[in-house]
Structures are given as structure tokens and as C-alpha cells.
Amino acid sequence: DADVTQTPRNRITKTGKRIMLECSQTKGHDRMYWYRQDPGLGLRLIYYSFDVKDINKGEISDGYSVSRQAQAKFSLSLESAIPNQTALYFCATSDLSRNEQFFGPGTRLTVL
Amino acid sequence: GNSVTQMEGPVTLSEEAFLTINCTYTATGYPSLFWYVQYPGEGLQLLLKATKADDKGSNKGFEATYRKETTSFHLEKGSVQVSDSAVYFCALRGYGGSQGNLIFGKGTKLSVKP
Known about the structure:
The structure holds two protein chains of two kinds. Chain A is an all-beta fold. Chain A has strands at about 5, 10-15, 20-25, 30-40, 40-50, 55, 65-70, 75-80, 85-95, 100-105, 105-110. In chain A, strands 2, 4, 5, 6, 9, 10 and 11 form a seven-stranded mixed β-sheet that branches. Chain A has a four-stranded antiparallel β-sheet with strand order 1-3-8-7, with no helix packed on it. In chain A, strand 5 and strand 6 (about 55) form a beta hairpin. Chain A is globular. By secondary structure, chain B is mainly β. Chain B is about 0% helix and about 50% strand. Chain B has no helices and twelve strands. In chain B, strands 2, 5, 6, 10, 11 and 12 form a six-stranded mixed β-sheet that branches. In chain B, strands 3-9-8-7 form a four-stranded antiparallel β-sheet, with no helix packed on it. A two-stranded antiparallel sheet of chain B has the order 1-4. Chain B is globular. The interface between A and B is medium-sized, with 22 and 20 residues.
């Protein structure tokens, strides 16, 4: 089984809908991250969490919210989706050293 | 703030050609440097890393040397294979708090033709 899983893998939704992307990990890491990937822009950090009670905004948090339900689970929500949130979303984890991040397979989100 | 600049792609090479993907960075202090690779349809995975000046990271035939004097971490491979076709991301990590998060370059897509 994969160490970092994301659900759903693909999602098509309409403008104004609320969407939740879920991430689970079995690596036992405290640190979890949500990134967005757009062609030509690389990966940009949306939110990160160093433990269950510590959640921080990243570079592009506007329009997004997160929930850290447990050490192993970190969810990303789009309260009211808009077309420019169409992107590939990745969850990642790391240990305290942050010398390596482990990525999930990604969720491709399309907002019509 | 910290930033990473890598050469734009796409890069198309023939099998067994030499590969160089340039990466330069801007950072205070002594960041750690990384190359991540993303194969089609997958998430990113760490390819190699270097944590101090003059360190050489290597893996799967790829190498990169941490050059502080030129603030560079260029990725090289002597003989690429079709299976190396992927997107390559250079990244850095500073120290403490939000500075300890990864900053990624925009990625370079490599296509290797048989």
C-alpha cells in the first residue's frame, strides 16, 4: 500500500460548489503539506501543518481551508470553487528534519 | 526571500545523450538543496540532495554539486535513457519555521527519444 494516499484522484465540479480533498499517510510523520501544481508555475504551498494543533498558511492560501483531523489525516477544502482553482493538488509529509518530503499521487481537480 | 530558478523546458534528447538542467538559487545562509523527479501520472519523489557547500548528491546516475560561489545546483547525467523522461524540480530548504519549507523551481520537462 502507498504511504501517502489522496482521494479522489480526479474530480470535476462546478463553480460555487464546496469540495474536499483528503490525504492520509502511514509514514508516522508529524508534518503534512498541501501543494498546488500548475503548468509552468511549479509547486506552490497552500497550507502546512507541523502537528495536529499547528496549521499555517502557505504562499497561496486564499480560497482554501484545511483540517488536520489526526496525525495521519489532512484535508483541503475549497469552500466555493472557482475555475482558476483548476489544478493538480498534492499532499506531502515529512519528518522533523524536513530533509525529504513524500508525496501522494495527486488529485486532478477541474472546476467548470 | 528564498527563490529557485531553473532552466525552462521542454528538453528533448536522444537516448545516451548527456543531460544538464541548470538550477540557481537565492537564499540567506546555507540552504539545503534538492532535486525531485515527477514521472508521468505520479507525485514527486526525491532524486538527490546536498546539505552543505561542495557536497555532491547522486542517485540513479544523476549528480548535482552544491556550488555556493555560483549559487548553483545543476543536475547532470552522462547517458540518459527513455525511462528518464519526466519533469525535474530543483528545490531549496532554508532554516526554521516557514523558512524550513521547500521552495520549488518551476520544473523542467525532459523527453528522451529512442
